[in-house]
Amino acid sequence: MPGILVTDGYWRKTLAAVRALGRTGHRVVVGEKTHFSPALFSKHGRAVVYPSPVTRPDDFSRWLREAPVLLDCDVILPMEEDTLLFALDRRADIPAKLPFAAAALVRNAGDKAWTLARAAECAVPAPRTWSDPAAVEGNGPFVVKPARGSGSRGLAYCDRPGLAALWRPGCLVQDRVDGEGWGVSVLMGDGGSVLAKFTHRRLREYPTTGGPSTLRESARDPALEEAAVRLLSHIGWTGVAMVEFKKRPDGFTLMEINPRFWGSLALAVEAGVNFPDLLVKWARGETFAPVVTWPLGVRARVFFPGDVMHFLKNPDRGKMDPPLLDFSPHDDYMRRDDPRPTAGLALSVLTGLFHREWRKFLKG
Known about the structure:
Blueprint: E1 3-6, H1 12-23, E2 28-32, E3 46-49, H2 57-70, E4 73-77, H3 81-88, H4 103-109, H5 112-121, E5 129-130, E6 142-146, E7 156-158, H6 163-166, E8 171-175, E9 180-188, E10 194-205, E11 213-219, H7 222-234, E12 239-248, E13 251-258, H8 265-270, H9 275-283, E14 299-301, H10 303-313, E15 330-331, H11 340-352, H12 356-363
Parallel strand pairs: 1-2, 1-4, 2-3, 14-15
Antiparallel strand pairs: 5-8, 6-7, 6-8, 9-10, 9-12, 10-11, 11-14, 12-13
């Protein structure tokens, strides 16, 4: 059986995918532009280093064309949005399956303004949003955020007097929405069919003002799940995506679509929804029963650096539940049956200290 080629081995979601595929019997090849990447240390994959798509795009394009044949892989799973779009733009030249939506749709779904406009068309609640600060109504509080991208990068909070100083081209202004972060992850098949879904809620995150989750838990909310599927069906989505919401006692509000694999993928796998394996099966034309149920209360976290940094920055750290040193939740990196990625994490953090974005992240 041909193998699966997974890119972007630096990220924890990639490690989750490599482990999930390897444990279900797939032969996995995992690549990144540097050896210092946690997923490249996993026993579940063969590690390869490829040219940087940023600094050597022509060489990386050639590698994408040649690697599936040389490595005997019939499916490619690009894990980061930039890598995914790079591959999708060259889909016709790559001799392997790319089981994702069309490049134009992935780009659109990664644009918050486009996504929120589509949400309005299918009655999915969303915050008021403006692309021009002069058109903003009300006194706030507001959030200024990049129109593209996910997570906390580039977010700033303010009232109306602070808008002019914070807004810059390429940003949106939204009403600030407080509430608990929830995510609905879905594998959509052709014709709007749901092949798999999973819901989680955030328990902790870093930066503490809004960033990637450091601890999260499996959950259910039928209304939230229906809204996510309705939105993805409305835009004609196929493949995997995660729809993010803020949830309050009086309802929920759409935040964005992650048009790719998401950072908390390991939790879904631990709860029995193996999105990487199901996506590969779908790509190969295999049939399977939709996976739409899972146990509640399964927890997973990133102990280091995520939860450690949350602990250091949280003024209520003494009330954290579970406490920092409670190791009962599954960890995205540390596994007794696959320990080497923990060493890869340490190396990636050490090398990351030389990069401005990593230092900014650690400062919170």
